[in-house]
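Recall the central idea of this unit: under ordinary conditions, the amino acid sequence of a chain determines the structure it adopts. In this exercise we apply that idea directly, starting from the sequence alone.
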Amino acid sequence: MIRKNTNEKDARKKESNERHNLNEIESKLKVLQTQISGISASSISSVSGAWPVGSVFLSIVSTDPATLLGFGTWERVAEGQFLVGLDSGDADFDTAEETGGAKTVDSSHLHACAPTGATADQQFSGAAIGAGVSSAATKQHVHDVTIPPFNTASGGSETLSIVPPYFVVYIWKRIA
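Accordingly, the structure predicted from this sequence is:
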């Protein structure tokens, strides 16, 4: 009987110690959670300052930056467009968020070229001496060239791509 009482006492003492240990662990866990929450809040505040409203976020994944960073409202912008640095000296690039340009150019634009005063086939003559020749008298020769006037319109009839090499990314703008 004494042994049974001792075993019961030991079991109750062990159970009491385990409850105490669990309470201590729970208390420490709550403190740790509070500390982590404080770190997260200050980290988010610090990181959100790196992307203020109006800033741009580039990524090769389609995930909204609000999900990736944990803050802000973002919208996709400049889809299918290139980014160009602002140049206050160039009217085409002097305003943020300005757009323009085209991916192709029509090559059928007309232009006329003609040598000055040319109205019919012109013939030009000249003399040349080959490079490294020691005696001009024995190696001189003449070329006759006929150049018709370019006074008619010329140009292609195709559309030309003017897209430079590119690397595609998702472009997001923070709006709130």
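The first strand starts at residue 56 and ends at 59.
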